[in-house]
Amino acid sequence: MLSIKGLKIQGFSDEKWHDIINGIDLTLHAGEVLGLIGESGAGKSTLGLAAMGYTQPGCRITEGEIIFDGVDLTKLSDSEKRKFWGNRMTYVAQSAAASFNPARRLIVQTTASTIRAGIKSRQDAYDDAKQLYDVLNLPDPDNIGDRYPHQVSGGQLQRVMTAMAMSPRPDLLVFDEPTTALDVTTQVEVLASMRSIVQEFNTAAIYITHDLAVVAQMADVIKVLRYGSEVEEAPTRQMLTAPQQEYTKSLWSVRALEKPQQEVQASVLSLKGIDASYGAVKVLNNVNIEIPKGSTVAIVGESGSGKSTAARVITGLLPQNSGTVQFDGEYLPPELARRSKEQKRRIQMIYQMADTAMNPRQTVREIIGRPLDFYLGIRGAAQTRRVTDLLEMIELDASFMERLPGELSGGQKQRICIARALAAEPDFIICDEVTSALDQIVQEGILKLLMRLQDELGLTYMFITHDISTVNAIADQVVVMNQGEVVEQGLKTDVFQPPHPDYTALLLSSVPEMDPDWLSNLISKRADAGH
Amino acid sequence: MKTDPNTYSALGEVAAVNERRTFWVRIVMDLRKAPLTARFGMIIILCYALVAIFAPVLAPYGEAEVFPEPYAPWGSVYIFGTDQIGRDIFSRMIYGARNTVGIAVATTFLAFLIGGVLGLAAAINRSWLDQFLSRSVDVLMAIPSLIFALVLLSIFGSTVTNLIIIIAVLDSTRVFRLTRAVALNVVVMDYVEAARLRGEGLGWIMRREILPNIMPPLIAEFGLRFCFVFLTIAALSFLGVGIQPPTADWGSMVRDNASLIMFAQYDLKVGLTPLLPAAAIAVLTVAINFVVDWFLHKTSGLNDEQ
Q: Is position A522 within any domain?
């Protein structure tokens, strides 16, 4: 079906050509699903697009051939390749919301390329699209196509995009991280419908992701990439049970990280009866959370559950309507402006996107040095010494002092953010999804660092996340939130053991596991429970 | 910096480390890549600046020196002739660079100081202050600025200080709008929130967190705004309420000698005399626009010629 031989792709940046893909071979048979995994920058998206003969602007194919159905795509002109694109090969992008035209109805967009290529008449294409919506488990398949993109949820939109990709009955389908932006509970449904549709039409597919558990559900064969080269390739089961390469093993081991249970101390921070709202929209409803000293409390929930809002109330960015925040025995004023410098210093925050959490025009020295100067009055040579100490504490060194954030990798950026928080010598740190934008190996490094710092400095963490394996790795206590209310809270071991409230059960069961049969089992289990 | 590829270490993470270049090296690199129009513009601006600085050295006669021969023709004594009361036009052109350009620079700086600070404050504050400032600016912008300036100058008198303050205030409305708009995109960044959480004051957030990140559009606007201010001053001088005689100024020089254009049919050079200061204004405006275009293109990230 598709075979790639010795493919090399270069990208142009900083006035030089760099290798992105470094000689990769790939074969894909009809009806086979190939999982491509690797960290960001491994070249998996570039390879996925190259499988369709496409390179992004600023990239070029320097060597190798891409043979699709007997034709070498590297030798075709763009207009010849366009005959394949959109009907024989299709693509499902990561962000469905950014990929749809907001001004046109879904069914028009679903069938556009099918009709344009003359594969089906308009009426046939519309009927077929409705059937696809049905196979993909979309609600009200006959009418959902009349809606506009903003009228459906993110998970539904992702499935409509899959229907769009399936509409011309392609021979090759490329999924580029299609579920990364979705909540776990939504992800399950989307994965299940994507898998069933690929099986039903016996389409060859390439599934690109960095999530091993997801790829285990989808792929027949897994290929691991790193630095633009292949690390290893094997059938899914073999790859999961017996990875050959050290690198693959290290990818697998991240999920094994687990924090032993600690004994509970007196609480350092307690939220009592917190109600909060953005304008007229109520986001938190009578939230009570206790955070014991020296422990890590994980707040889990889907997007919109109010977990980040709780953090904003604690920091004073969003004054609560009613209820109290008590920190180390004293009540904190709701407004940030009325809190003392000392109160501000003792509560620090680390953000999800390290990119936007650091001023791109300030050097690492300025970023870490400012809280030292501002809170503790440390300046000059003493400040340089302290910044060096902090850099060493986060496993970097003084050579980073004069770098700008743009010159750091994702993990290093997040470490600098941690150092900035530590510079204030806080007692309590709020970590808002600090690892969710990072690769698995880097995540593990950051989580280990946070735990080590907790041991050394006696810090208390409030860890906001939607990733259950992260919770396993770092938390002592767990708070489950849904729609602005606390569903369940307690020791990690208690919350993760049945019996669960309904929502916790749904959330926990939706977290993909490394077992390739997990999705099938879950779906049959849920179907049984439904009847 | 790569360590053993199979073990993880934060130090070994591969980042997109650009070659570290000093400020000057980067400027030289940029200049070498600058298009012809931008180089031309920069040379012109440099010439104007030199003329303005060294006016007393370059000018053959004094700024307000009156000679007994009004409307003298072009020649070796008076290169571009003399004006209606016998002042050397060439000398006045050179001094005019100093006055017109100098006042325009001062006015633009003042306009940016007022508009920039208020714009940043409005973007950060977002409450009644933003509403109050934005609506006041709307009101000011609703009045045609040249007529408004005329009225104000007639009320307060046409001194150089008044001229600078009035034009600066009127032009600061546009600077305010731009600053507020670009700053709003930066204010929502996490690092600004982090600074706010740290307890930083308004001044720090404006100066250190936001300003460095909105400089490129502001610098481009500075160039354009300078052109407009310069033209406004020239226009006001032409109308007689701008820079007052005997101070040499290109706008009033055009007005004073405008009637000479009627003699072009007898002596082409005489007819060109009023066009000389006008050309000086036009050339500088074009030159600045060339440079601003290049700068905008460079910083907007739209590099389509790869």
A: no
Contact B8 A444 (CB under 8 A): yes
User: Cis before residue A426, ω within 30 degrees of 0?
Assistant: no
Residue A339 belongs to what H/E stretch? none
Which of A256, A290, A305 corresponds to the end of one domain?
Answer: A256
The residue segments making up the domain with residue B101 are 41-70+89-299
A chain contacts of residue B196, beta-carbon cutoff 8 Å: 317, 336
Q: Which residue has the tokens 């600045």?
A: B288
Query: ipTM strictly over 0.90?
Result: no
Q: Is the pLDDT of residue B306 over 60?
A: no
Which residue do the tokens 């940043």 mark? B120
Maximum Cα interatomic distance, chain A, rounded to a whole number of Å: 76
A295-313 pLDDT, tens digit per residue, is: 899 998 887 788 888 999 9
The pTM (predicted TM-score) of the whole model is 0.79
Distance CA B143, CA B208 (A): 35
A244 and A272 together in one domain: no
Half-sphere exposure at residue A387, Cβ-oriented, CA atoms within 13 angstroms: 25
CATH number, domain with residue B293 = 1.10.3720.10
Which of B 82-121 lie inside 8 A of A, CB atoms? none
Q: What is the pLDDT of residue B304?
A: 41
Q: Answer whether residue B197 is part of any domain.
A: yes
Q: Tell me the residues of chain B between 2 and 31 that have a Cβ less than 8 Å away from chain A.
A: 5-11, 13-19
Chain-chain contact of B190 with A362 (C-beta, under 8 angstroms): no
Closest Cα in chain A, distance from residue B30 (Å): 13
- Asked whether A64 and A23 are in contact (CB, 8 A), the reply is yes
d(CA A188, CA A426): 39
**Total tally of structural domains belonging to chain B:** 1
Smallest CA–CA distance, residue A352 to chain B, in Å, is 9
Within 10 Å of residue A211's Cβ, how many Cβ atoms? 17
Q: Is A349 on the interface with B (CB under 8 A)?
A: yes
- Chosen domain end from A256, A278, A309: A256
Q: Are residues A328 and A280 in the same domain?
A: yes
Nearest chain A Cα distance for residue B155, angstroms: 44
Spatial neighbors of B194 by CB under 8 A, at least 6 apart, are A349, A351, A357, A420
B198/A14 CB distance under 8 A: no
Cβ pair A401, A450 in contact under 8 A? no
Contact flag A420-B194 (C-beta cutoff 8 Å): yes
For range B174-198, the mean pLDDT: 91
Strand order through the sheet with A460-465: A347-350, A428-432, A460-465, A296-300, A477-482, A485-491
A contacts of B9 (beta carbons < 8 Å) = 395, 445
Q: Which domain holds residue A306?
A: 267-360+410-497
Residue window 245-304, chain A: list those with CB within 8 Å of chain B: 246-247, 250
Mapped onto helix, strand or coil, the DSSP state of residue A79 is helix
Residue of A nearest to B194 (CA): A357
Residue A309 in any domain: the answer is yes
Amino acid at B43: I
pLDDT confidence tier of residue B21, bands split at 50, 70 and 90: low
Split into its structural domains, chain A has a count of 2
H-only helix segments in A94-183: 96-99, 106-116, 122-135, 154-166
**Is residue A240 located within the same domain as residue A293?**
no
Chain A and chain B share a number of CB contacts under 8 A equal to 93
Q: What span, in angstroms and rounded, lies between the C-alpha atoms of A92 and A77?
A: 23
List chain A residues with CB under 8 Å of B18. 14, 406-407
pLDDT, one tens digit per residue, over B206-251 is 988 999 889 888 888 888 898 888 888 888 888 888 888 788 888 8
Please give the order of strands across the beta sheet that includes A221-226: A89-92, A172-176, A204-209, A33-37, A221-226, A229-235
